[in-house]
Automatic annotation (TrEMBL):
Protein name in the entry: Uncharacterized protein
One annotated GO molecular function: S-adenosylmethionine-dependent methyltransferase activity
Domain of life, per lineage: Eukaryota
InterPro entries in the cross-refs: Methyltransf_16, SAM-dependent_MTases_sf
Amino acid sequence: MSSNTERKTIITSENRSLILSAGTTGFRTWEAALHLGTFLSTTSAGKSLIGNKRVLELGAGTGFLSFLCAKHLGAESVVVTDREPALIEQIDDCIGKNGLNKKQIQAGIWEWGMPLQVPFLFEEHGRVEFDIAVGADLIYDSDIVPLLVSTIRDLFDNYSVKEFIIAATVRNEDTFHTFLEACARNALAVEQIPFQSPPSEAQTGFFHSTSIPIRTYRVLQSQGQDQGQTSSSS
Ligand SMILES: C[S@@+](CC[C@H](N)C(=O)[O-])C[C@H]1O[C@@H](n2cnc3c(N)ncnc32)[C@H](O)[C@@H]1O
C-alpha cells in the first residue's frame, strides 16, 4: 500500500460475538450491512445513490451504513434509526468519534409502526423528508415483515422517499417470499440489484463472509398498471 494512501475508517461501538442481547440483534454489524456498504462504496451506481442525498436508515444496529454514507459517500444528511434506545445512545456517542456533527448525521428511535422520534434539524416544508432510505438484514422473521413493509410504504407516502435499498441475507426463502408478497400487497415494486460482494479472499475492505447468499434490492412505488406487481430476478 502506498504511504500516500488515505486510510478510510468508520468507528462503531459493537460486540462481534453477540447475536442477541436485550431483545435486539443490533449490537454487531451484520454481513448484509457490509455487503451493502461494499455496493454503495465501490460501484458508481452505489455511490450515485447516496451523494448529495438526504438518507434515512431503518433498523441500523451499530449505524455502520449511516456512518459510511455521512463520512465517506457525501450524503447531504443522514438520519439513523433503530427501535432500541441503547443502540441509539451508542450511535450518538460515535458521531463525534467519527469526526461528524449533528448537522451531518442524527440518531433517533424509530420503532416500525410508531411515530419517528428524530430531532427536528432536518425538517423542511414543515415535515421531515428524505430522498432515499436504506436497510440491511431486516428480513429475518416473518412476524415483523408486515410492520417493516407498512413502514416502507409510509416512507413513500409521508416522508418523500423515492427508493428504498435493502440488503437481505437469505437464510430462509419462505421469510423472503413473505416480504415480496407484502410489498406486492402494498403497491411496492421490488427489483434485484445485480451486485455480488467479491469472495472473501478477494475482499479489500468491509471483510465479510459470503457463505450465505446476500441479495440487494431496490424497492420503488409501483406505477399505474403495474400497481401491486412485484418483480424479482432471482
Ligand atoms: C439483524 S439486525 C441488523 C442491524 C444492521 N442493520 C446490520 O445489518 O448490521 C436487525 C435490527 O433491526 C432492528 N429492529 C428489529 N425490529 C425492529 C422494529 N420493529 N422497529 C425498528 N427496528 C427494529 C433491531 O433492533 C436490530 O438493530
